[in-house]
Amino acid sequence: MSAILLDGKALGQKIRQNAKERAAALKEKGIIPCLAVVLVGNDSASLSYVKSKEKALAEAGMDSRDIRLPEETSEEELLSIISGLNKDDKVHGILIQSPLPKHIDEEKAILSVAPQKDVDCFHPVSVGNAVLERPGFLPCTPHGVLKLLREYNIPVCGSHAVIVGRSNIVGKPLASLLVRREYNATVTLCHTGTKDLASYTLQADILIVAARNPEFIKADMVKEGAVVIDVGINRVDDPCAKKGYRVCGDVDPCVAQKASFFTPVPGGVGPMTIALLLQNVIEAAEAGIA
Predict the structure, then answer these.
(1) What is the pLDDT of residues 56-65, one digit of tens each?
(2) Count of alpha carbons within 13 Å of 145, Cβ hemisphere only?
(3) Which tens digits make up the pLDDT trace of 119-145?
(4) Residue 38: enclosing H or E segment and its boundaries?
(5) Annotated catalytic residue: which of 63, 116, 117, 120?
(6) Catalytic residue, candidates 53, 117, 147, 258
(7) Does the pLDDT at position 289 exceed 70?
(8) What does the pLDDT look like over 260-283, one tens digit per residue?
(9) What is the enclosing helix (H) or strand (E) of 44?
(10) Residue among 80, 239, 231, 86 at smallest CA distance from 169
């Protein structure tokens, strides 16, 4: 048995094309959807993520406000810049690239973003709206997982979904989305305090792993025919690789021989995250004229 690969790249491209068409329609009304990306410092991974987001925005016919600040930028200066972006009608979404330097309180920065421009869905108001099923943005990566499940007609209703990882970015919000009546899954959320993790993962009809631990989940931890969603993206040193490292997920690729569906890394959940960020920016711009 070999799993069907869930092609996030192809589905992400469909979503990006839809965003491009909606951006063109807004442009006819004199509105250009704009995302302000604020980067403090020179973290190499952050720089790479920002560049990929800016490229995606440009391809969709959207604007990006690139705000790069030196490492020594004070918390007060950053909050002042965010306040200005909140008041700028031409900016529809604000993204504060993490991590921030240690002298800046990341929670303060997140709280300072206006909820109507919080396209990352990190603000407590955005999180509360998502949990309570009120109108608002959905967090990009968890929403991407759900989009993939729907695209491949994978039954979620009544299934046992086991999530490994309790981050505020993936694990917790994904658990709250999966228990919505529209998905109706039974959810088990596992984490570093979970004893005998395999006893839970072996029960999963749908196993979603966001543990930040390279190839952590092995084949003997997955039941035959399970749907396995690997959210992890890790750089692992590899002297044989051209760049000196390789990119892998949190799940051993051998699991694909046991699963019914499997997300490749790269090319699975990753492309969905950026695509749904674009969708959230479009929705923010459209909300401004509703």
Answers:
(1) 999 999 999 9
(2) 28
(3) 999 999 999 999 999 999 999 999 999
(4) strand 34-40
(5) 120
(6) 53
(7) no
(8) 999 999 999 999 999 999 999 999
(9) helix 44-59
(10) 231
DSSP percent split of the chain into helix, strand, coil, nearest 5 = 40, 15, 40
Is 105 one of the catalytic residues? no
pTM over 0.90, yes/no: yes
120 counts as catalytic: yes
Active-site residue identified among 63, 97, 117, 258: 97
- Is the pLDDT at 245 greater than 90? The verdict is no
130-133: long-range contacts, CB 8 A cutoff, minimum separation 24: 130/173, 130/176, 130/177, 131/176, 133/180
In angstroms, the Cα distances linking 25 to 30, 32, 88, 226 are 9, 9, 21, 41
Only one residue has tokens 């092609």, namely 7
Distance (Å, rounded) from C-alpha 70 to C-alpha 67? 10
Whether 53 is catalytic: yes
3-class SS at 179? coil
Q: Please, are residues 261 and 3 in contact by the beta-carbon 8 Å criterion?
A: yes
Both tokens assigned to 21: 């068409």
How far apart are alpha carbons 213 and 216 in whole angstroms?
6
pLDDT at 187: 98
Residues in the chain: 290
Checking if the pLDDT of 158 tops 70, the result is yes
Strands 234-237 and 245-248: antiparallel
